[in-house]
Amino acid sequence: MNVNALVPVVVLLIGAGCDLMPAATAAQGVEAGIASGLEADRAQQVPPPAEESSLPQRDGALHALPPAADSILPMQTMIARFQADLPVVDSLGSDAPRSIDELVTRFVEAVEDSSTVTLAALTLSRAEFAYLYFPTSIHARPPYAQPPSVNWLLLEQNSLKGRYRLLRRFGGTHLHVTTHHCAGTPLVQGANRIHETCVLRIRGEDGRTEDVRLFGSIVERDGRFKLLSLSNRL
Fold first, then answer.
1. What is the pLDDT of residues 173-192, one digit of tens each?
2. What's the first-to-final CA gap in the chain, in angstroms?
3. pTM for the predicted model, two decimal places
4. Whose CA is closest to 155, among 133, 188, 171?
């Protein structure tokens, strides 16, 4: 925007004693117009957000992001702040599945019932994430270090999107799972074992089978199992 081009207009309005408005009011109006134009110019220069698929992810949590405002603090300080308003937990709970088989069975039943309550119960809560998962995860240390609040936000948002896609496609239907498996050896992170790239083989009404990823990694801790997120590839 050419600000100089508007200056003669200000002079003309003030010098002519324009009876449409006082000179001071006219000047204020033009200044407001200039400010508005500059804001518009700046807005046009803001780059569009990156496509979700173009960002490196791990269960929906981005590996490389601009640092958050408090990321200059020590990691232990950020973790303590994140935990501060949450109830202290030391286990995944007595109701958590005792095996991956049980977890998958209860997951499938929840999808068939379109039960968001059951799906939430099978997924790490914010408190479980804060006390049991994040402190020993790859996101608590370089090169993937990230404030826990940011990591949780990304994980939660991708899990919610995954749940919507999951129930839109399979909710309320019979989900015939013939087998399931997770790739490779589980990652050991503190007291947790992380089972990654878990795939379900489902059989359609036409008899054909399809391998699909309907949730993120599985967190195993002290003989109990929960989903890290519902992020999926649907």
1. 999 999 999 999 999 999 99
2. 45
3. 0.71
4. 133
